[in-house]
Amino acid sequence: MTHHRTHAARRAGLAGLAAASALAGLALLAGCRVGPTFTVPKTAVPQTWAGPTAPGAGTEATALAQWWTALNDPTLTSLVEEALRSDLGLRLAASRLRQARAAHRLAAAASGPTLDTSASVRRSRAAADSRDTRQPPGNAYQAGFDAAWELDLFGGVARSREAALADVQSAEESLRDVQVSLVAEVARTYVELRTQQQRLAIAQVNLKAQQHTVGLTRTRREGGFVTDLDVASAEAQVATTAAAIPTLEASIRQTVYALSVLLDREPGALLDRLPETAAIPTPPPPVPAGVPADLLRRRPDIRTAEADIHAATARIGLAVADLYPKVTIGAATGVQAANTGTLVEPWSTFWSLGPSLSWRLFDTGSTRATIRVRKALEEQSVLTYRRTVLTALQEVENALVASSKEQEHRAALVTVVEADRKTVDLATRLYGAGESDYLDVLSAQRSLLAAEEALAESTGAVATHLIALYKALGGGWEPDPQVAQASE
């Protein structure tokens, strides 16, 4: 008897050891992930910018995050903040982020076990060989639980979670990219509005001066000092300047409408809020642009493209996992009886436990075709990433050179306007004294009007190019509650 017990113990021990070894092997397999591992693409970027840059070791993240406040325009700051709270595009991007997060939770849930419960009652009668063997109808009661857990032996489920998490990262960066574009667009439109208002004010001031000249010309004609030609020329100049005013007024209205829509409001909502002419925002000192490599971490569109590569790489592994078998651990327990009275009896209980294996041996090449599709999509993501980096570098270089040269252009125009104002004043006084021809006055007035308009446009362009530089550098976002609140 003792001998038999020893053999039984040995067999039980061997069985336990085999079971433990099998579980250990499954655990090791479960840590395996087929398919390529994501790595950040290596992209060559220059060490320094080709265009003119401001002194400074690097770009200050805090200055870039809320760069619009550096323009020192309270109205612009309030408009940007309102747009960040209400813009439809930003809310749409936030909704897509919530969708991606939910999809990630769905992918994560696939790695865990499932537990189902069911209960049924059926009334049936079995077929018989003859009338004599026919049985009366009977009832069948059943209730129980079913559990299943697919072992992720080759990392298919893990790759699915990895891809879903990369999609979340892509959606987060897309939200930031929308915010960067929105802030820049609000600021650019606001600068355009103020520039148009300045041009209108310039036209109105010049119109009054030209009307005064018409009066002076008429007086000189009555005195016989000039002919009707001078009067006609003066009146024609007044009409030309007056004709430009309605066009400017229409452009101002349309720009206000565009600004209102950016704030998710009806076109005319800001007409009362922006009625008066105000100064064009004055740009701060040149922005330290840092080094080109900073863009790879700062620009949301580059970060989005990187996350898209990660998702595409993970989905290759997900497709490769379909080449391998799948093992599921299943378990079931419950009670079954012909009447409710015996459901609680021990003999009514049933259970089952054990693994099941499934392996698709032939699918006419669809799995391998899917793998090739996934690899092609990854290749496209890498190419998109590289193109995005190059475009970002170009945008910064364009903004740097445009900002630098426009500042030089504006400085020259300031000198031109000062000279033209002196010329107009001198020509008008000489004409009034009869020492100059009216053509000198007319030429000086036209030159002054063109110079003042060019100066206003250049002042707006300086601010616009600065806005473009901030946008190109990825300014307008930071990982703070403002972004998190928009994505909740």
What does this structure look like?
By secondary structure, the protein is of the alpha+beta class. It has a single domain (28-112, 154-324, 366-487), classed as Outer membrane efflux proteins (OEP). It contains 11 helices and 4 strands. The chain has helices at residues 2-30, 61-65, 74-86, 88-109, 156-222, 228-262, 295-298, 300-320, 366-432, 438-472, 481-487, and strands at residues 114-124, 138-151, 326-337, 349-358. A 4-stranded antiparallel beta sheet has the order 1-2-3-4, with no helix packed on it. Helix 5 runs antiparallel to helix 10, helix 6 runs parallel beside helix 10 (438-472) and helix 9 runs antiparallel to helix 10 (438-472). The two termini are 71 Å apart. The model is unreliable at 1-24 and 481-488 (pLDDT under 50).
Strand order of the largest sheet: 1-2-3-4
Return Rg in Å: 39 Å
**Secondary-structure content class:** alpha+beta
> Strand percentage, roughly?
5-15%
Low-confidence segments = 1-24, 481-488
Number of helices: 11
User: From the coordinates shown, what is the CATH architecture?
Assistant: Up-down Bundle
CATH topology, by name, is Outer membrane efflux proteins (OEP)
The portion of residues assigned to helices is 55-70%
**Mean pLDDT across all residues, rounded?**
82
User: How many domain regions?
Assistant: 1
